[in-house]
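Figure 2 data, in text form.
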Amino acid sequence: MPYGPTPNCSRFDELCRHGWDDGGSSRHHGEVIAAPTTNPRVLILDDDLTVSEVVARYLEREGYQVETITDGSRGLEQALADPPDLMVLDLMLPSLGGLEVCRRLRSAVPVPIIMLTARGEEADRITGLELGADDYVAKPFSPRELTARVKAVLRRAGGAMSTTGPADSRVLQAGSLEVDLVAHEVRIADRLVALTAKEFDLLAYLMRNPRRAFRRDELLEAVWGFAYGDTSTVTVHVRRLREKVEADPSAPRHVCTIWGVGYRFEP
C-alpha cells in the first residue's frame, strides 16, 4: 500500500495546485532543469511522480537545479557519476532500495542525503541515519518543509561552521582530537577522520561549548535548526560520532552522556 502523499489527499492536492502555479517552463522526467551553474544541484530519487514533481517545483522556485529519477539503481549510478549537491531519497524504490542506495553512495562520496520515510517507520529512519543520512522527512509532508530542510542541510554542508576570527580560533582541540572549522576537517593524532556534515557540525558545536550539558532538543534546535522534532536523530548521530572519534565508544572520553539531561563535551 503506498504510504506517500497522493492526489487523493486533500492537503497535498492543494500543495500540488500551488506547486504547478509557478509560471515555470515545462520539465521532463530525468532532465536537469536549466539554471545558473552556480546554483546547487538536487537529485530527487522517488518512484512517486506526483511527489517528485511537486517537490521539484518548489525547489526550482528557490533557484535549485533539479533532476528526478524513479529507479534506485539508475539513481545511484547517476549520483556516483556526477554527484549532486544533495539527494532527496525515498526508501521504497524499484530495483534497489533507498537504504542500500544510501549505504553505497555515502561509502563513495560525501553527498548530503535527506530521506523520505513512512510515518511511524522508526526502524528505517534510524537505520538510514546510521548509514549516514543527514536528515529525514516523514510522508505525507509539506513541500515547503522539505524545501526548508534542503536549505538547512546545504547551508551546514557548505561550511556554516566557518569563522572569521583569528586563525587559532578556527581550530578546536581536545587532546589529540583536532577540528579545523575552515578546512572542515577532523583529525585524531594527525589521522584524518571522515565525518558527515551533520556529525561535523554536532562535534564542533559541542567543542565550542565545553563542559556544558545540552538536552537533546537543545542540540536538535542548535545543530539541525529544528525547534521541535524527533530527538532520536541526535541520539543516532552521537552514537555514530563516538564510533569515529572515541578510542572506546562504550566508555567515551569526550562526548559524554549526562543521565537525565543529554550530552556534554569533556575537553
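Caption note: The first helix runs from residue 10 to 20.
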